[in-house]
Design goal:
Structural class: mainly alpha
Largest sheet: 2 strands, parallel
Strand content: 5-15%
Order of helices and strands: HEEHH
Strand order of the largest sheet: 1-2
Distance between the termini: 12 Å
Shape: globular
Radius of gyration: 13 Å
Mean pLDDT: 92
Number of strands: 2
């Protein structure tokens, strides 16, 4: 899969959750896709939502907070 295709899949999946999640920094923040999975609402904060989508699309864990995500190279989607 190309970098552009991966970026598109990431954006599409992220947009599919718009309006379906509740903001939290509590224990449920790892439940971006719902609790149980596939139900509404989902729970997340900003960085946990990005982490969940990258993990689902790319199969990599980019870190659990913004600092770790900025420093991570694992989720980088670039054209080569």
């Amino acid at each position: 899969m190309t970098a552009q295709e991966n970026r598109s899949r990431i954006v599409t999946l992220y947009k599919s959750r718009l309006g379906k999640n509740r903001y939290t920094q509590g224990a449920n923040r790892g439940c971006f896709f719902g609790k149980p999975e596939g139900t509404n609402p989902g729970y997340s904060d900003c960085s946990s939502s990005i982490r969940a989508v990258y993990k689902r699309v790319l199969g990599v864990d980019i870190g659990s907070n913004t600092d770790a995500q900025v420093r991570s190279k694992r989720g980088t989607v670039v054209d080569t």
